[in-house]
């Protein structure tokens, strides 16, 4: 059920602040709390409905920290204040406080321990003050799409380039995200935009340092040096990008949950298996990003210069058809995809390469070709047992462990 709340401005966050006219007030505004969009260990995200009609907004509420402003909120706001506006970073519009009734579903959710199934709100407490960050509302996360569909290589290329652009933006400011994963990558503009969000763990690296103490992260996405030594630098973020790329290409995480990111254990799939259904150039980038030695990984800017991302072999394709088909955006929003070939808010690359970059190359095979290859490979493996290859991959959470062919082949 929607709730009517009043938000009080605490602070804006640098260049990406909301125009007061769009909020109908300079320091306070009324809004209707919409549906829950997601939840994590330190926060939950809800849609923000009318009267904010000038844009689509979401509110990220932080779980209380013993009556004080949550530490996660303070860390995130400090990072957001340093971030210039970018098409590859979720836009934030200041942080606010609001009073929530004790009977509110939102308050019960926020006061619930992440490991507990129930929570008791003190009867004498009539309301609680909670803090939230106002940000652009996206259609869904990359994780949500991966759970429901498989990406083609052009679509994986589109999403990877956008992610690397966002990481480059951070690294140029000497900031590291420290929790790059598909759940923290947002899809917006009906699939024409992919951007990085959730800066709970982000921090800066001083000019004089190359490595910092690395606290937190997500098993399966953490770099080997972080897992073994608790220290990392910019290249640790790059490893996370590599895991996301692996998930995009194979719909599976390259590491077993019990052996995540440990050097020498349960490494990613061999070249031979990925080469069966993905291009050589995509494999080249993938295994560079996942190099165990951080010195062998490219920087985010260097990764953008790999041939796979430059459109020399693959013509990038946005994610509109998946976002619209799965109901994350309306069909009317998705119709515009033919007018903007490589994303509505990242046209610099398109302009640099010329309008022909948005058209399909005669050398790019269609879906019928991939279906033919898939059937041929399946037949060959069933006839020739020695050619049958079983991987050690573990699918992303909530997917049953299935045969590699059934998950990965186009």
Automatic annotation (TrEMBL):
Keyword check for Ribosomal protein: no
Binding site for ATP: 60
Keywords: ATP-binding, Kinase, Nucleotide-binding, Serine/threonine-protein kinase, Transferase
Domain Protein kinase: 31-309
Signal peptide residue numbers: none
Acetylation keyword on record: no
Family, similarity comment: Belongs to the protein kinase superfamily.
Descriptive protein name: Protein kinase domain-containing protein
Protein's organism: Durusdinium trenchii
């Amino acid at each position: 059920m929607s709730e009517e709340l009043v938000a009080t401005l605490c602070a804006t966050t640098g260049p990406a602040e909301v125009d007061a006219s769009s909020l109908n007030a300079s320091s306070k505004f009324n809004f209707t709390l919409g549906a829950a969009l997601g939840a994590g260990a330190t926060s939950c995200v809800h849609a923000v409905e009318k009267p904010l009609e000038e844009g689509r907004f979401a509110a990220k509420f932080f779980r209380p920290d013993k009556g004080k402003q949550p530490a996660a909120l303070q860390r995130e706001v400090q990072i957001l204040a340093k971030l210039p506006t970018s098409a590859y970073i979720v836009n934030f519009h200041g942080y606010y406080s609001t009073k929530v009734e004790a009977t509110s579903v939102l308050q019960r959710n926020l006061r619930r321990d992440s490991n507990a199934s129930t929570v008791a709100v003190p009867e004498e407490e009539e309301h609680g003050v909670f803090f939230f960050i106002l940000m652009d509302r996206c259609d869904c996360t990359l994780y949500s799409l991966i759970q429901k569909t498989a990406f083609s290589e052009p679509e994986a290329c589109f999403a990877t380039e956008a992610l690397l652009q966002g990481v480059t933006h951070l690294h140029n400011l000497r900031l590291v995200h420290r929790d790059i994963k598909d759940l923290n990558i947002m899809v917006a503009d009906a699939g024409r935009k992919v951007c990085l969000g959730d800066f709970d763990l982000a921090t800066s690296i001083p000019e004089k340092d190359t490595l910092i103490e690395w606290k937190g992260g997500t098993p399966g996405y953490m770099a080997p040096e972080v897992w073994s030594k608790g220290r990392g630098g910019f290249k640790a973020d790059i490893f996370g990008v590599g895991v996301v790329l692996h998930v995009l290409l194979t719909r599976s995480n390259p590491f077993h949950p019990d052996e995540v990111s440990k050097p020498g254990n349960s490494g990613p799939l061999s070249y031979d298996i990925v080469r069966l259904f993905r291009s050589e150039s995509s494999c080249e980038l993938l295994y560079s990003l996942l190099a165990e030695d951080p010195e062998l990984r490219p920087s985010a800017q260097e990764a953008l210069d790999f041939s796979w991302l430059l459109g020399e072999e693959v013509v990038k394709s946005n994610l509109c058809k998946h976002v619209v088909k799965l109901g994350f955006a309306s069909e009317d929003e998705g119709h515009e995809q033919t007018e903007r070939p490589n994303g509505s808010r990242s046209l610099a690359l398109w302009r640099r390469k010329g309008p022909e970059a948005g058209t399909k190359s005669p050398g790019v095979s269609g879906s019928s070709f991939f279906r033919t290859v898939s059937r041929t490979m399946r037949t060959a493996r069933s006839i020739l047992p020695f050619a049958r290859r079983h991987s050690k991959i573990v699918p992303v959470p909530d997917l049953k462990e299935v045969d590699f062919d059934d998950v990965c082949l186009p």
